[in-house]
Amino acid sequence: MRKLFVILLLALAPFGAAAKEYTDVYYDPAESGWGVFLVQSDATMFIAFFIYGADGKPTWYTATLNDDGTGTNTYTGALYATTGSPFSVPWNPAQLTITASGSATFQAVDNYHATLTYVVTGSATVVRSVQRQTLTGYTMDGVFSGSMAGSIADCANPATNDPALRARYVLQVTKTADTAATLVFTFVDVNHAGLVCTVNGPLTHYGRLYQMGGASTIACTGLGTDGNPRTATIDSLHPTGQGIEGKLTANFGGGCTGVLHFAAVFNVND
Question: In angstroms, what is the C-alpha Rg of the chain?
Fold first, then answer.
């Protein structure tokens, strides 16, 4: 059963997804108290604003944004004001109003930060730098079986480059509080069996995602590697309903740099 899971994962893991995933709660840490809820479906976003009007009272706006096609991870659309029945009484559809009230734009800066711009009719343009809001830490410790796909490039020995790397592994994840993690990839496919790579480093938590950067390192043993720690970054690290996934960017020595997307499922009893 485990082998079947790994084969399916290798075939189906969304390494080449057309749209990045930005679903989360966003806010400005310097202005806690307002923000937006963002849910994404492929290249469409639905955003609900929790902000305040000129009178200081909560004001309800929503927007449906679409990828503008420029390749800049920018989503634009109309802004709507909605009103309805008071929460304390039965819903009366006749009291619902939906009024076009301006426009909104969400432009991702990276996987964790964005610029939110919106214009309410009759008001000035509002521009806010926002980031994913962290609620609680995720449990990621465990043993997983998975696959990765990506490329190895820029090697001093061109024969070492691999523009279409595919590999399978067993992954051991250990997380220290919500501040650091160790990921040990033990490779099991024919081309990489005997290779073990360990990634260590601090964690930065952004909403649904983690980033391992800064002082993070990777050290590999087996298959002629030297075991020396080198720089590494893991972006968009997060648990899924069945396991874990992320993107590893690393220096593998000999001038080689790798960009590898990985995904894995929890190991369970066969």
Answer: 22
